[in-house]
Amino acid sequence: MPSREYEGKSEKDLISAAAKEIGISEDKLRVEILEKSKGGFLGLGEKIRIRVTYDLADLDVAPDSSALEAYEKVTVDFLAGMFDTMGFDVDIEVDNNGTDRVFIELFSPDSAMIIGKRGKTLESIQMLVNTVGARVPGSASYKCVIDIENYRQKRESTLTDLALRVAQEVIRSGKPKTLEPMNPFERRLIHVALQNETSVETRSEGEGVHRKVRILPRKHQ
Amino acid sequence: MQEKELVEYIVKALVDSPDDVSINVIEGEKSTIMELKVLPRDVGKVIGKHGRIAQALRTIITAAAMKAGKRIVLEILDNPRDEND
């Protein structure tokens, strides 16, 4: 169980400050008084040191640095161990930009294999890491995004280009066209890329992993 | 065998009872079959909604096996009779 120490003048103030900082309700903290010195005249110079101990499971759902730290540690440890077992040489960097979204960046000479065909392997790795991370108490709002060699960014611009190209084709031919199956994030990119395109409309069709975007010519009034 | 360790490593991180994870490797001529056994209450954790976790697991194993030039089939055993073993 994690614990922290605080020092100040009044026990009550310290406990409420600690609860606020950790992101937990006051009654969930186990408080231990480490040191207490009575001050002189009228209690001036009074000093108290406490240690609070808490259970990760009791943390408030609100973003909180220590639960986030635990989340980052678990996800990165899991990844590092996994690549180790796979025999892949990978460096891992983490950054959360102070948000609930943890960005994990990978650097590896084996990047092509880690990405896989159309990013399938990278997607699977991210999914497993998120599943493992979800087991960390208080991690409900956290999610991690894994990228390698800017793959996601490149894929984004590839998909946007594809959307615009296919839209032109649909306008020219007047016939709808269906793209290959994509995950929700990728489908969204296509919809967003074409939302201001007045001559076509986009629709998602199919179920689950087979869901694809269909680009159709828009009927003019 | 490296791929067995990999499956073991990932699955143990997903289940509630890591000590009850066992993998039986059957080496074939062209491909290797791995039979994964977990406690009945952990089976869902390894398969996931619509088999998404199982699918991710298989994709990663395939990638690792590719590096070693092998073909691996992962089977998740889901036999209620095994409960009384």
Quickly describe the structure:
The complex is a heterodimer of chains A (221) and B (85). Chain A is α+β, with helices and mostly antiparallel strands and 221 residues long.
Structure, described:
The complex is a heterodimer of chains A (221) and B (85). Chain A has 221 residues and is of the alpha+beta class. In chain A, the strands form three sheets. Chain A has a three-stranded antiparallel sheet, with helices on one face. Chain A has a three-stranded mixed sheet with strand order 4-5-6. Chain A has helices spanning 11-22, 65-86, 111-115, 120-133, 151-173, 184-193; strands at 3-8, 30-37, 47-53, 91-95, 101-107, 143-148, 177-178, 200-205, 212-217. Chain B is an alpha+beta fold and 85 residues long. Chain B starts with a helix and ends in a 9-residue tail after the last strand. The mean pLDDT of chain B is 88. The interface between A and B is medium-sized, with 22 and 21 residues.
What are the key terms here?
heterodimer; A: 221 residues; alpha+beta; Ribosomal Protein S8, Chain: A, domain 1; three-stranded antiparallel sheet; three-stranded mixed sheet; 6 helices; 9 strands; B: 85 residues; globular
Secondary structure tally: strands of chain A: 9
Low-confidence stretches of chain B: none
Following the backbone from N to C, one meets helices and strands of chain B in this order, namely HEEHHE
Largest beta sheet of chain B: what is the strand line-up? 1-2-3
Oligomer: heterodimer
Helix count of chain B, per DSSP?
Answer: 3
Task: Outline the fold blueprint.
The complex is a heterodimer of chains A (221) and B (85).
Chain A: E1 3-8, H1 11-22, E2 30-37, E3 47-53, H2 65-86, E4 91-95, E5 101-107, H3 111-115, H4 120-133, E6 143-148, H5 151-173, E7 177-178, H6 184-193, E8 200-205, E9 212-217
Parallel strand pairs in A: 5-6
Antiparallel strand pairs in A: 1-3, 2-3, 4-5, 7-9, 8-9
Helix pairs in contact in A: 2-4, 5-6
Chain B: H1 2-14, E1 22-27, E2 32-37, H2 43-47, H3 52-67, E3 72-76
Helix pairs in contact in B: 1-3
